[in-house]
Amino acid sequence: MRLGNDQLAQFDREGYLFFPGMFTREETRTLTDAVPELYSRREAYNVREKGKDAVRTNFAAHLYSEPFARLARHPRMIEPVEDLLGESLYMHQFKINGKQAFDGDVWQWHQDYGTWLNDDKMPAERAMNVAIFLDDVNDYNGPLMFIPGSHKRGVVDAKHDLTTTSYPLWTIDNGLIGQLVERAGGKHGGIVSPKGPAGSMILFHGCLVHASGSNLSPWNRVSVYLSLCAVSNHIRRFKRPEYIAHRDFTPITSLPDDCLLKDYPVELPWKDGMPASALETSTDELKMAA
Length: 290
Ligand code: SIN
Ligand code: MN
Description:
The protein has helices spanning 5-14, 25-40, 66-71, 75-85, 112-118, 174-183, and strands spanning 16-19, 46-48, 55-59, 89-97, 107-110, 127-133, 144-146, 159-161, 169-171, 201-205, 210-212, 223-230. The protein is α+β, with helices and mostly antiparallel strands. The protein has a single domain (5-279), classed as Sandwich (Jelly Rolls), CATH 2.60.120.620. Bound molecules: succinic acid and manganese (II) ion.
């Protein structure tokens, strides 16, 4: 799937593009069906909600689950991001966020690129987020919220929040969020939250300010979040474990468009477990060839 000029202009203006129903129910079913078994694993790559057993986020499933390995190479997602960044891509991060019924906790206001810069030393904002809904997203199950156009501000001030939820995040203070929302239209469009059926897809800029509330509804809101980075813009520091911030900068090659319906062969390097090296971290910066 390639983007037209109107879509490129809209992305530039708003910082996101929403594609309701991009994948059919049949296409998302194998993904959704695989989630409970992945979440049941007692592994470091499953981060649970604070004080609860519910999974907040599962990392790196594309390295040990066949359906997710196929999704990670889906042309409906890879091609538009290649268009937006004008370069081959590698997978910087791959998450399946639970936002489970009754237990799904908040994601505070943040920019993803703030974390990629501060923690991973990613040189520029040349990385894109893709969200794919595995459940229907409605007003009640903690939909993602965006401040349209906030990506134009570049990286804004953030502080490292280690306590609010079980997952550390560089979060933005309420005063600045108030200003950004006001500038984006206040009560008239200053916050938007794309909602739609399972299979819907959102592309959003690494600097777009976003958040989501808790899920007090009886409906899960499982979504996949992929962060695709331009190969030349790969991270320069391995301060976070490899299952959170990937270190394999090989360009992604797309599979055929029907790859969620047919069993195309895929490599699963972590099928028998994560290598010990995936847990090793360092605060040194990579030495780049001159
Ligand atoms: C994220 O910002 O990475 C996740 C937000 C959400 O799942 O609502
Ligand atoms: Mn985020």
